[in-house]
């Protein structure tokens, strides 16, 4: 017997009966969690993409890309069975025909990339789902399920016929705004400066709600403002979703949903896909504001300007040597001593959000998302290869297999089915 094994045996012998039983229970719990993870369809509703990862190069979504948090090999390794790949476009500061045309072109490029993946790059390993039935069929075949979500309706422009076009291309949810107000809706980002464009939805946004209902696209309220979301609840004829949001009572960030919003989702019959995004899982807004205020004051003192990190860095580098060194030393004092970064949120912190939502609005209205490759990830679920750790934590907290199945995919697929049923009725002329 090796020295390591003898030491292990000695340590087990020294355990009290209760601790020994606990160790065995933990092993049994992990095995049970693994079996559940293998049996339920795990679905992540928000994974960002870059079209360059869908080319026929050596490194792509099929062969695997080291820097990516999600690709097919990582999905296979971690048991992530399904994912919404996102047709995302940023919000232009100026809303006009030129910027909307550029956004539309960028969206089409991402649609084409996803179709290339499912149609030609990896049709034996993934399949494009348009319905819950499609998802279950593809999953049963042993392939990974690919859905398409649309982040930021800015790409629709003012031509609402594009909503049907996006539905025909496979888009199954759409958010009317992102970080910045769009032609359809105010964004949650209005909370930063109190500047609003529409005080919720614009008249065109209200028309878009009806079109989304008609063509079977789930309405995503993760990025729009609270006023926009509450107005959407009044207008929609179908359940809605939050594709990647957190609980505001646990992390007071404008991207998270407060209790009024969560209860509104329950009344609507929708689902909140809780997001494993570090700064939405665990945050201290007052401390963050103090830290940012100190940095802003430092920049003003040294005349450092810029609207993005690259511009700020260039302004710092342009300072004379003595001033640049003094600036960097003061910045280090702010970021490392006065306001050091908190430890990264963990899977346990993340599942706290799931627990809170389940207790407030019920097991039927809660789901899971990561926002991988868009800033998401927590310690323990940093990429698709670590997906099992979420299931393990749910099992540790006493969730049953039936409940875990609902949280991982059942609730979202139920909402999609209901939205598409409403679409059929509306297309037939029903009110």
Task: Write up this protein.
With 431 residues, the protein is of the alpha/beta class. It has 2 domains: 17-282 and 344-427, Metal-dependent hydrolases (TIM Barrel), CATH 3.20.20.140; 285-338, no CATH class. It is built from 17 helices and 9 strands. It has helices at residues 3-14, 17-39, 72-78, 97-121, 132-140, 161-168, 190-193, 203-214, 226-235, 259-268, 278-281, 285-302, 309-317, 321-338, 347-361, 388-396, 401-427, and strands spanning 43-48, 82-88, 126-128, 144-151, 171-175, 218-220, 241-245, 271-275, 366-369. The strands form 2 sheets. Strands 1, 2, 3, 4, 5 and 6 form a 6-stranded parallel sheet that branches. α6 (161-168) links the parallel β4 (144-151) and β5. α9 (226-235) packs parallel to α10 (259-268). The radius of gyration is 23 Å and the shape is globular. The chain starts with a helix and ends with a helix.
Short description:
The protein has 431 residues and is α/β, with parallel strands linked by helices. Helices cover 51% and strands 11% of the residues.
